[in-house]
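User: Please predict the structure of the protein below. I'd like the answer in C-alpha coordinate form so I can feed it into my own downstream comparison script.

Assistant: Understood. Taking the following sequence of 169 residues as input:
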Amino acid sequence: MAKKEYKLEWQRKKRREFKEKHGYSLCRYYDNQGLRDAVLKRDNYRCVECGMTAEEHLKKWGRPITIHHKNKNHKDNRLENMETLCLSCHGRKDISPHLIEPKVPRFKQEIIWLRAFGFSIEDIADYFNFSVAAVWKWLKRWEPEVEKMRLKVPEVMMRLEHKAVINNE
Protein backbone atom coordinates (compact mmCIF):
# COMPACT_ATOMS: atom_id res chain seq x y z
CA MET A 1 0.00 0.00 0.00
CA ALA A 2 1.36 3.43 -0.99
CA LYS A 3 2.08 5.99 1.71
CA LYS A 4 -0.79 8.28 0.58
CA GLU A 5 -3.35 5.45 0.55
CA TYR A 6 -2.19 4.30 3.98
CA LYS A 7 -2.62 7.81 5.38
CA LEU A 8 -6.16 8.12 3.94
CA GLU A 9 -7.13 4.75 5.39
CA TRP A 10 -5.70 5.73 8.78
CA GLN A 11 -7.68 9.03 8.73
CA ARG A 12 -10.92 7.22 7.85
CA LYS A 13 -10.35 4.75 10.67
CA LYS A 14 -9.73 7.55 13.19
CA ARG A 15 -12.89 9.41 12.07
CA ARG A 16 -14.97 6.23 12.41
CA GLU A 17 -13.57 5.55 15.88
CA PHE A 18 -14.25 9.14 16.97
CA LYS A 19 -17.84 9.01 15.69
CA GLU A 20 -18.48 5.67 17.43
CA LYS A 21 -17.06 6.97 20.71
CA HIS A 22 -18.65 10.46 20.75
CA GLY A 23 -21.71 10.01 18.52
CA TYR A 24 -20.87 12.83 16.14
CA SER A 25 -18.30 13.34 13.42
CA LEU A 26 -14.79 14.60 14.00
CA CYS A 27 -15.19 17.37 11.39
CA ARG A 28 -18.17 18.78 13.34
CA TYR A 29 -15.99 18.67 16.46
CA TYR A 30 -13.39 20.80 14.71
CA ASP A 31 -16.05 23.10 13.20
CA ASN A 32 -17.28 23.88 16.70
CA GLN A 33 -13.71 24.18 17.96
CA GLY A 34 -14.42 21.52 20.56
CA LEU A 35 -17.23 23.59 22.11
CA ARG A 36 -19.86 20.87 21.75
CA ASP A 37 -19.00 19.32 25.12
CA ALA A 38 -18.95 22.76 26.79
CA VAL A 39 -22.41 23.60 25.39
CA LEU A 40 -23.83 20.23 26.46
CA LYS A 41 -22.39 20.63 29.94
CA ARG A 42 -23.68 24.21 30.27
CA ASP A 43 -27.19 23.09 29.19
CA ASN A 44 -27.09 20.07 31.56
CA TYR A 45 -27.20 17.66 28.59
CA ARG A 46 -30.83 18.67 27.96
CA CYS A 47 -32.76 20.32 25.14
CA VAL A 48 -33.21 23.94 26.25
CA GLU A 49 -36.69 24.03 24.66
CA CYS A 50 -38.45 20.84 25.80
CA GLY A 51 -36.07 19.44 28.43
CA MET A 52 -35.36 16.09 26.72
CA THR A 53 -32.12 14.62 28.04
CA ALA A 54 -29.26 13.51 25.81
CA GLU A 55 -29.87 9.94 26.98
CA GLU A 56 -33.59 10.08 26.10
CA HIS A 57 -32.68 11.63 22.74
CA LEU A 58 -30.24 8.83 21.91
CA LYS A 59 -32.83 6.23 22.87
CA LYS A 60 -35.60 7.88 20.82
CA TRP A 61 -33.69 8.78 17.64
CA GLY A 62 -30.57 6.66 17.82
CA ARG A 63 -28.30 9.68 17.49
CA PRO A 64 -26.85 12.28 19.85
CA ILE A 65 -28.66 15.44 20.82
CA THR A 66 -27.85 18.40 18.54
CA ILE A 67 -26.13 21.74 18.99
CA HIS A 68 -27.87 24.70 17.36
CA HIS A 69 -26.30 27.97 16.24
CA LYS A 70 -28.85 30.60 17.28
CA ASN A 71 -27.91 33.03 14.51
CA LYS A 72 -27.61 30.17 11.97
CA ASN A 73 -23.98 31.13 11.24
CA HIS A 74 -21.93 27.94 11.67
CA LYS A 75 -18.73 29.95 11.76
CA ASP A 76 -19.91 31.93 14.81
CA ASN A 77 -18.86 29.46 17.48
CA ARG A 78 -19.20 31.69 20.51
CA LEU A 79 -20.63 29.78 23.46
CA GLU A 80 -23.52 32.26 23.82
CA ASN A 81 -24.50 31.58 20.17
CA MET A 82 -24.90 27.84 20.71
CA GLU A 83 -27.60 25.84 22.48
CA THR A 84 -28.56 22.21 22.96
CA LEU A 85 -31.70 21.13 21.09
CA CYS A 86 -33.39 17.81 20.38
CA LEU A 87 -34.10 16.97 16.73
CA SER A 88 -37.73 17.99 17.03
CA CYS A 89 -37.04 21.43 18.51
CA HIS A 90 -34.05 21.95 16.21
CA GLY A 91 -36.28 21.27 13.21
CA ARG A 92 -38.81 23.87 14.38
CA LYS A 93 -36.06 26.47 14.84
CA ASP A 94 -34.54 25.89 11.40
CA ILE A 95 -37.76 25.61 9.38
CA SER A 96 -38.42 28.35 6.85
CA PRO A 97 -41.42 30.60 7.58
CA HIS A 98 -43.05 29.80 4.21
CA LEU A 99 -43.17 26.13 5.21
CA ILE A 100 -45.05 26.95 8.42
CA GLU A 101 -47.79 28.87 6.57
CA PRO A 102 -50.88 26.66 6.25
CA LYS A 103 -51.73 25.67 2.68
CA VAL A 104 -55.42 24.82 3.15
CA PRO A 105 -56.67 28.44 3.52
CA ARG A 106 -55.38 29.26 0.02
CA PHE A 107 -58.17 27.04 -1.33
CA LYS A 108 -60.88 28.18 1.10
CA GLN A 109 -63.60 29.02 -1.44
CA GLU A 110 -63.11 25.83 -3.46
CA ILE A 111 -63.14 23.69 -0.31
CA ILE A 112 -66.29 25.39 0.99
CA TRP A 113 -68.02 24.86 -2.38
CA LEU A 114 -67.05 21.19 -2.52
CA ARG A 115 -68.22 20.57 1.04
CA ALA A 116 -71.48 22.44 0.43
CA PHE A 117 -72.09 20.27 -2.65
CA GLY A 118 -71.75 17.17 -0.47
CA PHE A 119 -68.17 16.04 -1.05
CA SER A 120 -66.65 14.16 1.88
CA ILE A 121 -63.70 15.55 3.81
CA GLU A 122 -61.62 12.58 2.55
CA ASP A 123 -62.48 13.36 -1.09
CA ILE A 124 -61.59 17.02 -0.63
CA ALA A 125 -58.30 16.10 1.08
CA ASP A 126 -57.43 13.68 -1.74
CA TYR A 127 -58.32 16.21 -4.43
CA PHE A 128 -56.02 18.92 -2.99
CA ASN A 129 -53.43 16.45 -1.66
CA PHE A 130 -53.90 17.63 1.95
CA SER A 131 -54.23 15.56 5.07
CA VAL A 132 -57.76 14.72 6.19
CA ALA A 133 -56.96 16.26 9.59
CA ALA A 134 -55.96 19.60 8.02
CA VAL A 135 -59.12 19.82 5.91
CA TRP A 136 -61.29 18.80 8.89
CA LYS A 137 -59.66 21.43 11.12
CA TRP A 138 -60.26 24.26 8.64
CA LEU A 139 -63.78 23.14 7.77
CA LYS A 140 -64.63 23.26 11.48
CA ARG A 141 -63.59 26.93 11.47
CA TRP A 142 -65.49 27.63 8.27
CA GLU A 143 -68.68 25.77 9.29
CA PRO A 144 -70.94 28.88 9.19
CA GLU A 145 -69.74 29.68 5.67
CA VAL A 146 -70.29 26.09 4.54
CA GLU A 147 -73.85 26.20 5.92
CA LYS A 148 -74.50 29.50 4.12
CA MET A 149 -73.26 27.95 0.89
CA ARG A 150 -75.44 24.85 1.41
CA LEU A 151 -78.48 27.11 1.40
CA LYS A 152 -77.42 28.40 -2.02
CA VAL A 153 -76.85 24.92 -3.50
CA PRO A 154 -80.47 24.30 -4.63
CA GLU A 155 -80.50 27.69 -6.38
CA VAL A 156 -77.19 26.97 -8.10
CA MET A 157 -78.35 23.47 -9.06
CA MET A 158 -81.52 24.90 -10.64
CA ARG A 159 -79.44 27.37 -12.65
CA LEU A 160 -77.15 24.59 -13.82
CA GLU A 161 -80.08 22.35 -14.79
CA HIS A 162 -81.75 25.24 -16.62
CA LYS A 163 -78.50 25.94 -18.48
CA ALA A 164 -78.20 22.24 -19.43
CA VAL A 165 -81.76 22.20 -20.75
CA ILE A 166 -81.13 25.30 -22.87
CA ASN A 167 -77.85 23.87 -24.23
CA ASN A 168 -79.47 20.53 -25.16
CA GLU A 169 -82.33 22.15 -27.14
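That's the full C-alpha coordinate string. Strands lie at 66-69, 82-85.
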